[in-house]
Backbone:
């Protein structure tokens, strides 16, 4: 029996408009430092059959917690303290664990942010996809497998008949995310909760997953809650949008209305983030020249004849999807990975290829800021030691001279003296990244390599960090080599752009040059893949590209 | 958090507030410790008290022959005498000193060797890592007790040899653990950042990596201490460990073993001392592991 036949049998009268999920005055508390404090403070939510609701907010806004609560589930360390969650007439908070379990997977499904972490690496994809329907005795194994293959095809996974017999590590991230959607769809649920399903993906892959999800949700007339911090993505998926902050509803409106006419100041500020622009300035002399560099990890060649130049006091953005070799380029410049051939010169003099042969003076002049501030700061050292060490090591500052410089640095990054004795775990993500910036700036470098420094941060925080970087560049005249996959960031910070694809530079030049047509084919793909704040963008793009979603 | 030091001038002054804040924190952690951990801590404290104050507490000398062989309990000799007429209680007390002393020394030495080499292997990688790891594999391929017996019969069973041989054999396990946990830290960005700053190997080892892998190492220290203790006792029981007339719990079990045949529990006393200390150390280690592993009981 195929899926469409079953649909008609099971739900002959399921039409849009009927309320499927109704959450009233939901209150959830979370535990930290052995105290309970409110995470969700009285949120109401209604969802009709076949409707897609977008939940937007920064991290800590309670989006995921609400998403899980819509299934009647509270994460370990959380408890639902009030309100009701009515799903198809049942109060999920009252019906008890057994009945909830019977609903999960069959009528309510969940798609997590990281499919790679959610699949069991020891089992084949198809086995995990049929688990719910076989386990809940909805269908036999053979039938469930046929359904799964059908879903793989609908989600446009390549080689749908056989891909299910691979293990999770044998398919790409985008394919895995689609396989997880297939798993959620397997029992034809009434409601699916998507928790940031494309956040971890490249823009070009994201499009395929978005298109696939949108397509299937539409075909099956499934209601969905789509959680994301990316407005443009939600704009493509949702019929209606709710903006959350600190566990409270800020604003709720149909998508189009929300995009064109946001009411609350907070919503407006979220919208404004995407419009940060920097006027490009032409550079004078080049501080860094990378000339036809090849590099490899063992036998795997990653960079093929890469040439870039960074003008003094300017920002060069290196753009490309994961695997394009942009981080490898940073490793080559820092000396962690000596190039196979080609040359690099810094400030007119050739740069020693190996890190261990470079002298201290040279190390001081090139600094690096990392993508994940959590791993870039030693969790067992205080801010005082983290920032103080380079001062001592390179500049020989001790005692009160060191302390003065520490205060000066904190002031530069808009933090104060109280932070000196904190451990990294006592700082927020944005504050940690500020400390990383201060560590790089501590010893007056000339070039800072920024490796995706804002991609792990919330949009508002990221904007603050970008503004800080721009201000510091103006004040100190430092040059940035800014590695990113996010074109909005590029527009905000770059003077020049280098586009990389599979280890090669496909296009480079000033910002306006690269961003105005005609583009190189890959640049075009990259640029057109960035979601725009237009609800019709995805559909029109797919129509333009003449395909529902390309197989990877 | 420590109180905000108003004027921090010298580096020495900076360190003070941190140390002050560490003590109450340790005390708070102790107050929340479960009864098993408290039991373990108290037992260990008593053992160390006996070990340090042995000459003061013990009624007779360590190798002093004071009575007849195998005297009964009570009277002048609280726990009777051994086969040569030495006071058993005194020998138990001195035994604490010898056995624990040697075990602490051996464990420290094995952690120094294994820890340093493990860190080297993790940080440097490449052929150094391979060389060290394979050498350790070879050492581990031979059963430890038999290997120790063999080496002791070759080099002679002096206390120095005993310590060195057990330390080296035991350091293989420490090496493996250190290397494994350090590997997870070495790949983190802050280690790379330190390298890019031109930090030396010693700094990266002691300041960047060691503080982050300390919890599992400390826990392992407790466990390995027990094993060393048992190894020494076993070797002494076999006659290749601590040599007479030095008092040692393992050899005391052997020397008095025959008494068991007559329904006398005396040989069980030194064995009980070993067992109690092992249990106590394990209780403390359990607590420490639980505290630092970051796993909290939910609900």
Residues:
């Amino acid at each position: 029996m195929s899926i469409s036949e079953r649909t008609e049998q099971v739900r002959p009268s399921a039409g849009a408009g009927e309320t499927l999920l109704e959450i009233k005055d939901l209150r959830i508390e979370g535990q930290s430092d052995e105290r309970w404090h409110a995470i969700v403070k009285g949120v109401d939510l209604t969802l009709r059959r076949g409707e897609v609701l977008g939940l937007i907010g920064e991290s800590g806004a309670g989006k995921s917690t609400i998403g899980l609560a819509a299934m009647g589930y509270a994460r370990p360390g959380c408890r639902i303290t009030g309100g009701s969650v009515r799903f198809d007439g049942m109060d999920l908070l009252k019906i008890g664990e057994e009945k909830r379990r019977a609903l999960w997977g069959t009528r309510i499904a969940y798609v997590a942010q990281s499919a790679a972490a959610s699949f069991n690496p020891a089992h084949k994809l198809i086995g995990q996809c049929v688990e719910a329907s076989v386990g809940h005795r909805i269908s036999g194994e053979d039938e469930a497998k046929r359904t799964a293959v059908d879903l793989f095809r609908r989600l446009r996974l390549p080689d749908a008949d056989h891909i299910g017999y691979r293990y999770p590590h044998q398919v790409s991230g985008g394919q895995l995310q689609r396989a997880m959607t297939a798993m959620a769809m397997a029992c034809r649920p009434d409601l699916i909760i998507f928790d940031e399903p494309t956040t971890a993906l490249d823009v070009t892959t994201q499009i395929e997953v978005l298109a696939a999800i949108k397509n299937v949700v539409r075909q099956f007339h499934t209601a969905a809650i789509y959680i994301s911090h990316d407005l443009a993505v939600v704009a493509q998926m949702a019929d209606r949008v709710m903006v959350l902050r600190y566990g409270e509803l800020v604003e709720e409106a149909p998508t189009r209305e929300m995009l064109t006419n946001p009411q609350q100041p907070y919503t407006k500020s979220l919208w404004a983030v995407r419009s940060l622009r920097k006027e490009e300035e032409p550079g004078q002399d080049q501080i860094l020249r990378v000339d036809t560099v090849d590099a490899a990890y063992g036998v795997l060649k990653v960079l093929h004849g890469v040439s870039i130049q960074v003008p003094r006091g300017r920002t060069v953005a290196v753009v490309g999807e994961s695997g394009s070799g942009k981080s490898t380029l940073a490793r080559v410049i820092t000396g962690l990975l000596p190039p196979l051939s080609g040359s690099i010169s810094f400030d007119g003099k050739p740069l020693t290829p190996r890190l261990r042969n470079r002298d201290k003076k040279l190390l001081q002049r090139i600094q690096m800021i990392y993508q994940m501030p959590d791993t870039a700061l030693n969790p067992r050292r205080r801010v005082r030691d983290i920032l103080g060490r380079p001062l001592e090591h390179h500049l020989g500052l001790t005692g009160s001279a060191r302390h003065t410089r520490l205060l000066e640095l904190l002031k530069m990054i808009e933090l104060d003296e109280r932070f000196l004795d904190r451990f990294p775990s006592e700082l927020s993500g944005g504050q940690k990244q500020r400390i990383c910036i201060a560590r790089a700036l501590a010893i007056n470098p000339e070039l800072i390599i920024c490796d995706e420094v804002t991609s792990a941060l919330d949009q508002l925080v990221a904007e603050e960090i970008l503004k800080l970087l721009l201000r510091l560049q103006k004040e100190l005249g430092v040059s940035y080599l800014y590695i990113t996959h996010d074109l909005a960031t590029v527009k905000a910070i770059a003077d020049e752009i280098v586009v990389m694809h599979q280890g090669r530079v496909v296009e480079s030049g000033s910002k306006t040059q690269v961003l105005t047509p005609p583009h190189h084919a890959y640049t075009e793909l990259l640029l057109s893949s960035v979601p725009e704040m237009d609800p019709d963008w995805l559909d029109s793009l797919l129509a333009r590209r003449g395909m529902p979603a390309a197989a990877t | 958090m420590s109180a905000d030091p108003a004027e921090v001038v010298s580096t020495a002054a900076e360190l003070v507030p941190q140390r002050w804040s560490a003590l109450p924190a340790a005390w708070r952690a102790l107050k929340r410790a479960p009864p098993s951990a408290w039991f373990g801590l108290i037992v260990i404290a008593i053992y160390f008290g006996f070990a340090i104050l042995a000459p003061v507490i013990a009624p007779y000398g360590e190798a002093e022959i004071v009575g007849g062989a195998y005297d009964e309990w009570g009277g002048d000799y609280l726990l009777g005498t051994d086969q040569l007429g030495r006071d058993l209680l005194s020998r138990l007390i001195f035994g604490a000193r010898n056995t624990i002393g040697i075990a602490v020394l051996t464990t420290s030495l094995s952690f120094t060797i294994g820890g340093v080499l493990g860190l080297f292997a993790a940080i440097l990688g490449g052929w150094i890592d391979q060389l060290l790891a394979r050498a350790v594999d070879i050492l581990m391929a031979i059963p430890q007790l038999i290997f120790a017996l063999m080496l002791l019969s070759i080099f002679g069973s002096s206390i120095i040899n005993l310590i060195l041989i057990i330390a080296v054999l035991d350091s293989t396990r420490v090496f493996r653990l250190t290397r494994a946990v350090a590997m997870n830290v070495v790949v983190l960005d802050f280690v790379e950042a330190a390298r890019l700053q031109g930090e030396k190997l010693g700094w990266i080892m002691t300041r960047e990596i060691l503080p982050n892998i300390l919890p599992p190492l400390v826990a392992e220290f407790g466990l390995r201490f027990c094993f060393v203790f048992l190894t020494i006792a076993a070797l002494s029981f076999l006659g290749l460990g601590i040599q007479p007339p030095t008092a040692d719990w393992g050899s005391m079990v052997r020397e008095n073993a025959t008494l068991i045949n007559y329904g006398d529990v005396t040989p069980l006393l030194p064995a009980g001392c070993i067992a109690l200390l092992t249990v106590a150390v394990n209780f403390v280690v359990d607590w420490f592991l639980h505290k630092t592993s970051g796993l909290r009981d939910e609900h």
